[in-house]
Amino acid sequence: MTNIILFGPPGAGKGTQANFLKEKYNLVHISTGDVFRENIKNETELGNLAKSFMAKGKLVPDEITIDMLSNEVDKNPDAHGFIFDGFPRTEAQAEALGYLMEDKDTQIDAMVALEVDDEVLVERLINRGKTSGRADDADEKIIRNRIKVYYNETAILKDYYQKLNKYYGVDGVGTIEEITGRLSKVIDSL
Questions:
Q1: Average pLDDT, the chain
Q2: 98 labelled ligand-binding
Q3: Would residue 187 count as lying in a domain?
Q4: pTM of the predicted model as reported, rounded to 2 decimal places
Q5: According to the annotation, is 133 in a ligand binding site?
C-alpha cells in the first residue's frame, strides 16, 4: 500500500496531478475539502458537527477531521493506497494522520510537494479564476495572501516530514505530462 500526501500552494496543480496519479497507481484520492462538503451536504453526524463550528467562524477541530478521514479510508478497504490532499496542515494533524494510518496497519510513505514560483502561481490562479467562478481566484491580493498563508503553514510540515526522510519536493512547472513524470519517479522510488 502506498500512501502519499500531495502538497503544494494554491494553483500548483494538485487536483490535476491527483487525478493522473490515482489512475496510474490505483490510489484513492481523499481531498479534505471534498470530504467536508460531502459530509455537510449529506448531513452526517460529523458533517453537522463540522458545520456548527464553521457557522461560528471557527476552525473544525482536528479530531472531527481525522474521524472523517478515517471513515473515508474505511470506505475503501481494497485500496492500493491513498493520496491525501489538503491535510495535514499542522504538525499535530500530521501526527494524528500518522496514528490513524498505524491503526489501519499502514503508514504515510511520503509528502510530495509541488514547488512552483509565486508569479507562476498568481498567473495560473488568475487564469483559473476566469473560468472557475471562484472569487478567491479572481483577486490578486487574495491570491498572494493564500500563497503566503500556505508557506507559513507548510514550512513546519516540510521540516516535520524531512526529519522522517519522507519529504520530496518536485518541480511543478512544465507540461502536465512532465510533472506527472517527476511525481511518478518519486512514487516509484518509495
A1: 93
A2: no
A3: no
A4: 0.89
A5: no
